Amino acid sequence: METPLVVIAGRPNVGKSSLFNRLIGRRQALVADQPGLTRDRQEATCRIGGRMVRIADTAGLEEAPPESLSGRMRQGAATILEQADLILFVVDARAGILPPDAHFGTWLRRLGRPVLLVANKTEGRVGYANAVDAYSLGLGEPLLVSAEHGEGISSLMADIAAALPPPATKIRDEDVEEAEELTAAEDPGKPLKLVILGRPNAGKSTLVNRLLGEDRMLTGPEPGITRDAITLPLHDIEGRAYQLVDTAGLRRRARVQNEIEKMSTGASINAMRFAEVVVLVVDAVDGLHDQDLQIARLVEREGRAMVVALNKWDAVEDRDATRKAVSDRLERSLAQLKGIPVVTLSAVTGASVHKLLPAVRQVYATWNKRITTSALNRWFEDALGRHPPPNVSGRRLKLRYVTQATARPPTFVVFGTRAEGTPEDYRRYLVNELRNIFDLPGTPIRLDFRGTVNPYDDKD
């Protein structure tokens, strides 16, 4: 049975995102006391009245020319409202009913979808007294809540459950529990967590729309349109599932000054930390910037697999020179991710976008790779024979054996007498050998060195 869709709508700064976070039980949408913070719709699934419900938070409804950013935001909200099983029309009780509320209230009545009128910010005498003005909208009795303080949320959830269309078939409680356990389990069919990162205006949202096959994310010439980290379901042509996350552009820290951009940056970095694979989108016309490399190093430090997407390839004049410049810079400045896959594509035209997900699957497989201890130690013996460990402070390093501790990313432990003192250049030698011999391109490799106690060590 299809999950019913509940859409939260209203003019800017009435508390829609705060209400969204309250209903789903976590802080997913960015919240600040500034109108127009939400631009792309956020979605999440939660249980209301014993039933799984899809909740959507939308951009504030404003009158604006269709070609403007506000006009495009309104169109995006209107599209999802037409699909809603239930609309929560939110007004600000402290501010009272304003002309835009009346205008959009009339529009919602004509839309013909079920509507619950929610009067938010009713804490205190002023908010409570002003809430009665909401009757003038002709949308029934206002439901009084304070999303910020959590007041009235339980009653609202009961009203939502009562207003939803009845389920087509009855679902047993044990079926719901089994489904939740299966979602949480580590099974091969679970979605691959794929996060799109990059500088502002590199074409991340356009690429996401191209992968989805629909204009889901707001795009345009203005840099920094995306503010939230938006999670979206995706299936490739072979039916494999992805949890796709579009993020706000990451600028150099010194240039991030206003509070909203700091929040957006934090959401992008947090999304990356929960990723399995990151696609770093680079503007091929501008070339590989220092900030692109900074983002790549951050991904490597977090131990995530990565693919570089050279976007806007259709606008590149000298493709051979551009490809060589990017490859040389990656080789020189990002040696810790040697062999990282680079896919040239155009999100606008769709050229070569079909090559991206296969590259993602490949680096994901490498990121999960496990190597047997016997194969590792045959390689280890050969590597030590070709390039013996150096002396440290006049004493020999006795590296004895190696084993793989974990995958995701591949992590190895080398044991031996005074192994913890292994110089950095010899560590790099072993990592490069591991990468080449066992075919581990484009993934972080962790190599830990642990010393063993030798009771006769002081007699060497």
From TrEMBL:
Keyword entries, A-Z: GTP-binding, Nucleotide-binding, Repeat, Ribosome biogenesis
Instruction: Identify the InterPro entries for this entry.
Output: G_ENGA, GTP-bd, GTPase_Der, KH_dom-like, KH_dom-like_a/b, P-loop_NTPase, Small_GTP-bd
Q: Which GO terms describe its biological process?
A: ribosome biogenesis
Key word Nucleotide-binding present: yes
Q: Which residues are recorded as binding GTP 1?
A: 10-17, 57-61, 120-123
PROSITE patterns from the UniProt entry: G_ENGA
Listed name of the protein: GTPase Der
> Which species is the source of this protein?
Acidisoma silvae
Taxon lineage: Bacteria, Pseudomonadati, Pseudomonadota, Alphaproteobacteria, Acetobacterales
